[in-house]
C-alpha cells in the first residue's frame, strides 16, 4: 500500500512523532469521499473530484463534518493535531494516485479563516499551510507547484 508515495518519498512515511489516522475508503467505485476521525472525536471528510474539462485533473477539499460545527463548513478546531490531519490527507491523496496513476494535476484552495481578508492574487493562510505540508510529498523534479490567486495546482511534469 502507498507504493506511489513510498517510492518517491520514502522518509515521509518514517517521520518521527507524526502518524496518520486510519481512514475509510469510499464504499462505491466512482465516489471519492474518504472519512477519518481524529483523537478528539472530530470527523473529517476528504473529497476528491475530477474536473469536467479534464478527467486527469482533480481537486481536493477536506474539513470537519461534526454536527457541532455545522454552521461553518471549514472549521478551525485548534486542537493541536493539524500535522497528523494533514499527513492523513496527503496519504489519502497518495492512495488515490496509486489507483489513478494518470492524474497529472491536483488542485486545492483553502477557505479564509474568520477575520482573514481575502485579497486578489494572494493565497489564504490555510492554502499556504497545506502547500507547505504537501511540498514534503510532491517534490521536484516530478512535481511542480503553480499558484493562481488562492488556488494551488500541483502539476506532474
* CA(first)-CA(last) distance: 23 Å
- Fraction of residues in H or I helices: 10-25%
Q: What is the 3D shape?
A: globular
Overall pLDDT score: 84
Largest sheet: 7 strands, mixed
Q: Could you tell me the radius of gyration in angstroms? A: 15 Å
Major beta sheet, strand line-up: 1-2-3-4-5-7-6
β-strand percent reads: 25-35%
Q: Helix count?
A: 3
Give, in order, the helices and strands.
Answer: HEEEEHEHEE
Low-confidence stretches: 6-14
Helical/strand content category: alpha+beta
Q: What's the total count of β strands?
A: 7
Describe the model:
22% of the residues lie in helices and 25% in strands. It has three helices and seven strands. A hairpin with a 2-residue loop joins strand 6 (143-148) and strand 7. The longest helix has 18 residues, at 82-99. It starts with a helix and ends with a strand. The relative contact order is 0.16. Residues 6-14 have low confidence and may be disordered.
What is the strand and helix layout of this fold?
Layout: H1 3-8, E1 23-24, E2 33-37, E3 43-50, E4 57-64, H2 82-99, E5 105-109, H3 125-134, E6 143-148, E7 151-156
Using brief descriptors, characterize the structure shown.
single chain, 157 residues, alpha+beta, seven-stranded mixed β-sheet, 3 helices, globular
Task: Briefly summarize what is shown.
The protein has 157 residues and is of the alpha+beta class. 22% of the residues lie in helices and 25% in strands. The chain contains 3 helices and 7 strands; from the N terminus they run H-E-E-E-E-H-E-H-E-E.
Amino acid at each position: 500500500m502507498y507504493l506511489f508515495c513510498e517510492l518517491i518519498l520514502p522518509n515521509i512515511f518514517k517521520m518521527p512523532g507524526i502518524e496518520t489516522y486510519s481512514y475509510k475508503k469510499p464504499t462505491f467505485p466512482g465516489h471519492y469521499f474518504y472519512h477519518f476521525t481524529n483523537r478528539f472525536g472530530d470527523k473529517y471528510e476528504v473529497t476528491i473530484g475530477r474536473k469536467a474539462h479534464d478527467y486527469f485533473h482533480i481537486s481536493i477539499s477536506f474539513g470537519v463534518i461534526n454536527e457541532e460545527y455545522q454552521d461553518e463548513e471549514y472549521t478551525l478546531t485548534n486542537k493541536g493535531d493539524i500535522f497528523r490531519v494533514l499527513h492523513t490527507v496527503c496519504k489519502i491523496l497518495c492512495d488515490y494516485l496509486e489507483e489513478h496513476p494518470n492524474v497529472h494535476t491536483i488542485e486545492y484552495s483553502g477557505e479564509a479563516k474568520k477575520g482573514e481578508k481575502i485579497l486578489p492574487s494572494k493565497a489564504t493562510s490555510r492554502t499556504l499551510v497545506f502547500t507547505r505540508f504537501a511540498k514534503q510529498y510532491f517534490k521536484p523534479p516530478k512535481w511542480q507547484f503553480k499558484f493562481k490567486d488562492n488556488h494551488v495546482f500541483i502539476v506532474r511534469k
